[in-house]
Amino acid sequence: MMEHSEIAAEASPEAVRDIVQAIIDQVEVKIVLAPSPAMVMVRQVDPLENVPFLLGEAFVTECEVAVDDCRGYGCVLGAGDERALLSALLDAVVGGGHRAAAEVIPLLAAEESRIRARWDRESRAAATTRVAFDVR
User: Fold this and answer.
1) DSSP state of 57
2) Which of 70, 89, 114, 129 is the residue whose CA sits 20 to 30 A from 27?
């Protein structure tokens, strides 16, 4: 199964709303840090010299929540308040081993199937544009 953070990043907007709603319908959620914009440094490793360096900054949206005694943090690339909230909720519920995880995991599995099907369609569509060169 994909990591819950990857599902949050790749899920359709409708699935994001459905999963967030499923969580907040079951448990009391306290927003510790409302979804807000931030910048993070992107680190990279030079493949030739194996030396780390800072590639630059990336714009992200981050969020932090508390679900009972489980805290969760979410950070997604770009602007995405709902997606950052979902990521934080999943971190608290699934990553924190909260009792509500049993209800959420089937929703994540269903969304993972849709994501993998979409990736497969995109891969097949891109494959039709592949060009082969005969080099002699």
Assistant:
1) E
2) 114
